[in-house]
Amino acid sequence: MNKAKTKKSKFGIGYIAFVAVLLILAVIAVIYVINLLNRFESTQPERLVEAKIAELTADAKNGSLWSKYSGTDPEASRYEPTDVKKYYTEALAAGKVSYKIKQGTYTEDSATYNIVSEDGNTLAEVDLKAVGKPETKLVIFPFQDWEVSSVKLNSEPKTYTIYAPSDFTVRVNGIAMGPREASAEEDGTLKYTVSDLYLIPEVSVISPDGKEAQTKKAGTTIKTVFYDYSLTLPSTLSVMVNGKNSSGSDIPGVSVKHTIRTLEDPEIIITDMYGNSFRYDGTAPVPLTYCTVTANDDVTVTVDGVPVPESATSTSDNPEYQTVAEYTADIPKTKVFSIAVLKEDAEIISKDRNGNVLEADYSSHSVNLASSVPEEPMPDEIRSLVDPLQVGEDWSLLMSADTEFWAVARHILEGSELYDMAYSWATSIDITFTSIHYLKTPPFTNESVTNFRRISDSCFSVDVSFDKNMVLGDGRELVDSMNSRFYFVNTPATGNTWKLVQIKELLTDAGN
Question: What is the pTM (predicted TM-score) of this model?
Answer without folding.
Answer: 0.61
